[in-house]
Amino acid sequence: MKKTLLSIAFLSAGLAFVPATFAQDAPPSSGNYQSSQPLGSGNWLIDLSVGRTDGYSRNSDFGSGFGSGSGSLFNNKNGRRTGYSVLGGYRWKVGPDLGLGVEAGYADLGNYKLSNLGSSGSVNQLSTQNALHGWMLGGNGRINLLPQWYISAHAGYFHANNNGGAYNDTLHQDLFHGGDRGGYYAGIGTGWDINERFGLGVKYDYFHASAGSIHDVPTNADFGVRRSTGIVSLDAEYRF
Fold it and tell me: For residue 206, how many C-alpha atoms fall within 13 Å in the half-sphere facing its CB?
């Protein structure tokens, strides 16, 4: 355990040291992205977002997708859900207006019902809702068109937890076999940097994962389940 902690400490120190060393030889840049920092410098960051989700599953009935005629952003035939994500990472200034970085974090796309706060209902509905949730690992980029106005994008690997995801539909004789599955996420956003440390914006993220298979007993056929969820979020990022 001690060796693991030491390795993490050395790796973290190295990530911070490399761009700092590079920045010593780089002239200051007054570009739109982190204008007070020289090229090659970087920042650790924390990103928090919360928004409304919409899920869709091929060959299953978990939900319906944006643009499918199921309703508006806030209501659909299966009910919108509240989702969130928490990300941490490091981003380097690679151009006067451009930053590129890496990130890791966690997203939950609808297993919590905030309207139950202060009532007898459960806020944590993870065991019954079975909305997609899992760990994220990827890269991100940001371009500042003005010192305050930015456009952002990110994408990467999404390890989705499907809550075991097994059921038996006695009416149609369908058996569903799920479990943890790999997938991907991608998103784009825009917003306003209040200062060089803190920014607020909006973004749209798309999550996709394989969720196992459905076995139809009468026909002895298997159908792959593909689960996807979109989320429109308010986003806040702090850089330090």
Answer: 9
Q: Which residue has the tokens 């899920």?
A: 55
Element (H, E) at 173: none
Contact 178, 163 (CB under 8 A): yes
Q: Would you say 229 and 132 are in contact if contact means Cβ atoms under 8 Å apart?
A: yes
Give the whole-angstrom CA distance, residue 44 versus residue 34: 13
153-174 core/surface letters (b: 16 or more CB in 10 A; e: else): ebbbebebbbbebeeeeeeeeb
Task: Using the predicted structure, report yes or no on whether residue 159 has a pLDDT greater than 70.
Answer: yes
Alpha helices, H only, 119-161 = 126-129
Q: Give CA–CA dist 148/166, Å, rounded.
A: 48
| Percentage of the chain modeled with pLDDT above 90 | 44
Domain region containing 200? 2-239
Tell me how far apart the alpha carbons of residues 9 and 203 are, in angstroms, rounded to a whole number.
32
Count of structural domains within the chain: 1
Where residue 177 sits, what CATH number does that domain have? 2.40.160.20
185-224: string of b/e by CB count within 10 Å (b at 16+)?
Answer: bebebebebeeeeebebebebbbbbebbbbbeeeeeeeee
Which 3 state secondary structure label does DSSP give 191? strand
In angstroms, rounded to a whole number, what is the distance separating the alpha carbons of residues 154 and 107? 14
> What is the tens place of the pLDDT at every residue in 193-205?
999 999 999 999 9
